[in-house]
Amino acid sequence: MSSTKVRNDSGDTQRLDAAANKSKLLKENSVRIMDIEFNARDVISAISDDIGKGNILGCVKTAGQWIVTLKNADDAELLQQTGLQIGNDMCTVMGVSRSVLTVSLFNVPTYVSDAELSDKLMEYGCRILSPWTRKYYYEFPAIENGTRFVRLELPSNAKSLPYAIVINGNHLRLKHNGQSRVCNNCLSEEHLMRSCPQYLCSLCGQQGHTESRCPSVKCFRCQRLGHKSFNCEC
């Protein structure tokens, strides 16, 4: 009797594990599309034009967005990279469990290595999924124009990357689909970097303000503490 019970318990565990793995896979194959007064027919027809109706497993409206589950992870990644045209609206598509994006960086000097760019993005928790691609001038195909792009996965707690990053004193513009204004330090949508609680001021060692707003800074114009001369209102 006991051996039969062990076999049954083992079978139940295997079935539960299989169900959990299937649920995880389906979640990874699911994307979010913000609802702009679309109906199910609009969403399904638009996605069918891109990847085929037979590759759609579910299309459910909840909390002001459509959750679409697809058969293949490649289709989910494709929609996230390209967005979705529904009627006259170009809609941003984001992953449910992960967001895969093509990120472009502009104004990148040639001497800045791909590894430096990857290291900076990985500091945010991104996972690099492809080699960097460098763009060249059409008229001068051997000369870089400062634009590079890469495919990556955003960290699960982030919806966007900042509009700019700094690497070795170089200010680089950053762009991807569905981009929004976030803190350059922690990627939070709740605040900007100058008030980020995780930001550590290099002048006083305190958190919650940048160097330009450090209370220990003395203005050259008025000699008062708390601001630099370019922020002086005296």
TrEMBL record:
Keyword Transcription: no
Stretches assigned to the CCHC-type domain: 201-216
Keyword Zinc: yes
GO biological process, any: activation of innate immune response
Pfam families noted in UniProt: zf-CCHC (PF00098)
UniProt-listed SUPFAM superfamilies: Retrovirus zinc finger-like domains
Keywords: Metal-binding, Zinc, Zinc-finger
Record-linked PANTHER family: GAG-RELATED PROTEIN, ZINC FINGER CCHC DOMAIN-CONTAINING PROTEIN 3
Name under which the protein is recorded: CCHC-type domain-containing protein
Gene3D superfamilies: Zinc finger, CCHC-type
Any one GO molecular-function label of the UniProt entry: RNA binding
